[in-house]
Amino acid sequence: MYVDIWGTHCGPCIKEFANLHELKTRLKTDSVVFLYLCNPYKLKWDKKNAKLWKELILEHDLAGINILMSAECYMDGFYEKYKDKFSPQTMYAIPRYFLVNKDGEIVNFSAPRPSSKEELYSAMQALLEENCP
What is the homologous superfamily of the domain 2-113 according to CATH? Predict the structure, then answer.
């Protein structure tokens, strides 16, 4: 699984979406699940932000699983559980990417961005080969 934590008002996050089509085409496999976790804008639920989130999913063809996280999930859930994996200065920085193995374990807390192309493709291929008997 490739996990992308992004935000509706994050320019670098949205810019990375342009590189996903090439990656997905190159992988040509159903073995990779793409999970897009959108953080809550200003850490609160907002109807306008929810609408923008839906529009961006369609505009950038974010095929996969899309979740608009609550502030509790974003701040206290995931990051509290894995706080030892991040520095205090970058803990909540986005965009952020993870690679997850077939057992649901995060194996890379700092996966390459889609724009890194070959680096990300190689990391994903290595994980797929690891997971195949």
Answer: Glutaredoxin (3.40.30.10)
In sequence order, the 6+-apart residues with CB closer than 8 A to the CB of 128 are 29, 31, 32
Closest CA to 35 of 92, 106, 93, 84: 106
Stated as kind and residue range, the H or E segment containing 97 is strand 96-100
For the chain, the domains span 2-113
pLDDT tens digits for 37-64?
998 766 666 788 889 999 999 999 999 9
Contact (CB, 8 A) for 37 and 5: yes
Tokens of 11: 């320019």
pTM of the model: 0.88
Burial (CB < 10 A; 0-12, 13-18, 19+), residue 44, is: exposed
